[in-house]
Every structure is written in structure tokens, then in C-alpha cells.
Amino acid sequence: MALEIGVYLLTSTHVGAGGSAGAIDLPIAREAHTGHPLLPASALKGVARRLLDPKSDAGKDTPAARLFGPPPPQKGEAGEPLVPGEAVFTDGVLLAFPVRSLTHAFVWVTCRHSIERWRRGRRLLGLGMPAGPKGTGAISTLEHKGPLVLDSYATVLEGGANADLAAVAAAWASLLPKDDGVAAQLPKRLVCLPDADFSHLVQRCTPVTARVQLTPGKTTDTYRGEGADGKEREYKGNLWYEESLPPECLFVFSVQARTQGDLSALSDAVKNKRKVLQIGGNETVGMGLTAWTIAKA
After folding, report:
1. Cα torsion through 49, 255, 2, 253, rounded to 10
2. Distance, CA of 205 to CA of 15 (rounded, Å)
3. Which helix (H) or strand (E) holds 243?
4. What residues form DSSP beta bridges with 111?
5. Using DSSP, how many helices (H) and how many strands (E) does the chain show?
6. What is the pTM of this model?
7. Which of 101, 102, 130, 93 has its CA nearest to residue 6?
């Protein structure tokens, strides 16, 4: 059994890379060979386990224990051999990225590499798929003539609405929430760029935010002042730059059963338990809210 699951970002999201990159102290996770953002499988697996086992106290014979492995022994308990869970997760790869435009509120952009990767994944899962678009130029599902300005770059589209890309966009609509109108919008506003242009945009158009931790002296420098206990103490502030993914991004990942086991418990939980799942950091300021949708076979 296998599942293909779409992850649609409802708010800005930060899933970190675990290090700094140039002037950015906390960059997002990216693929080394393409520079495309990704959602690491470990993060997705943690969210899925939390969905099935909110209190992390599931017994050995529960669906959570079967899919993700038994819980670790508590203090004082005898340890047992570790066994792998039944569910095997892949990284969440980027399908569509939102970019501002002069002629539309925004459009989603993708590239042929992302489309072919998605088709390859569907093929490995034994799922049906439309043919990918041919050629190497910029095409879209828009009825648009003349240059299309994306962020601060002008792109010349080949012809009018492309039927092959429209078929891909319709399939991706099944990865989106059905109750907020997004599934109806993506097929009308998808642009497929050359691979190099897409990589450039997804590396240049991710928001970078300055975060500040102030001392009681209203500064990020070291500050000495009186604490609550009346004694003098030293305070240290901080200033850092954090990268995030914008809302409206669409990712996809798959879950497979390691030994032909049953994934119905996870499928039912994604469909029925919660409509919004949180991933990554900064949960208390509303970041990382996502909608998960299981694709049609």
C-alpha cells in the first residue's frame, strides 16, 4: 500500500537546515543539487506520528506503534530491541511556488524537472498520471499575451494556454484543499518555466525576516541591570535573520508500507482527524500551518 500526500502551506513556514548560509542565520532546508526548498521526511514523519499519537504514549499494539515503531522504554522499564516502523516516508518535494505578478495577484510557477519528478514518483507508486509538457520554453495555463512579469523578471510565454500543462495542473488540484477555492485557482494560474529560471526564483523569492531579542535596556548588546531579585546581572540580546517559505506553496511526499502493511490508519487520520497540521518552528506566532490532502489514485 502507498499514499501520495499533498502539503499546502496556509501560512509562512520555517523548516530549518540546521546551519547558516551566508548572511542568513536560519535558512530553510533545500536540496543540494537543485536549490529547491524541501520538507525533510523526518519533519513530515514527526507530524504524522503526532497526528496518530498526540500524547506520545501509545502502547505496543496501537496503529502508531505499528507504523512508526514502539515507544521508547520509560525510566525503570526493561529495554526491548528496536524495530523499524511499517511506514516509509519520502522528503516533501516542491511542485508549485507562488510568485507575485504585475498582471495577476500572484501565479504559481513550476518547471519540467519538478513535473517529471512528480510523474516518476506516481509511476513508482503504481498511480496514473498525465503526460508532461514538451519543449523547453516558458508555458502556462493563462490566456496571456506578451511578456509576463514574475517578481522583477520578465518572461515570454510560448503561445496561449497549454493543454498538457493544464492536465498536470488539474491533477495537482487533487492535492489541494477542496473547501477554500484553491483547487479551482491553481489550474488557471500555473506557469512552467525553464528549469534554470525556476531555480533562480525559488532561491531569490523566499522571505527573509530579521528577528530581534531585546534586553531590558532595549538593546541587542550586552546589558547590565538589576534583576527581579534586586541583584545586578548581565543580559544578552540577539539579532538574527530567518528564512521562510511563503504561504501557498504546494509540496508532495509519499508514504509506503515497508512490508506490504496497512496504512489505512494514517490515511483515515489525515482525512478525518484534523484539517490543519503544524510543521517546523515558530508555532506560537502562527507559522507552519499546513493542509494535507491524500491524492486520488
Report:
1. 130
2. 16
3. strand 238-243
4. 193
5. 7, 16
6. 0.90
7. 93
